[in-house]
Design a protein that fits this description.
Blueprint: H1 41-44, H2 55-64, H3 71-81, E1 85-88, E2 91-94, E3 97-99
Antiparallel strand pairs: 1-2, 2-3
């Protein structure tokens, strides 16, 4: 028959007053609910959309950036880092420069279509 020994949960002798050391933790009061965080569009949508070759896909990515809460900070960060390409802060970057529209790949027409 095996006998078990009850061991105290504390390393101090019972009955002695507490001397120094950390005081017992008290429960913290409940915090008020914080603001609701919306997911960022570039984290929810397809990430390839922000670096697409197709101009219509880049315009779609720009439209997703329209109401993003960090749009200004995203654009400022991309400008300071001199991002080479992609959609940042609702603007299209190409070779480190903000451009209004991206042209499709290929050579432009010699004759304007009527």
């Amino acid at each position: 028959m095996q006998q078990t020994i009850d061991r105290p949960t504390s390393h101090r002798r019972p009955g002695l007053p507490r001397t120094g050391g950390p005081s017992p933790r008290r429960p913290r009061p409940a915090l008020p609910p914080g603001p609701v965080r919306r997911p960022l569009p570039c984290r929810v949508e397809d990430p390839e959309l922000w670096f697409a070759e197709n101009p219509s896909q880049l315009e779609l990515a720009k439209s997703f950036c329209g109401d993003c809460p960090v749009r200004e900070a995203c654009l400022a960060g991309a400008l300071s880092r001199a991002e080479p390409w992609g959609v940042w802060g609702g603007e299209i970057f190409d070779r480190g420069v903000v451009i209004a529209r991206k042209r499709p790949r290929g050579r432009p027409r010699k004759v304007v279509a009527a």
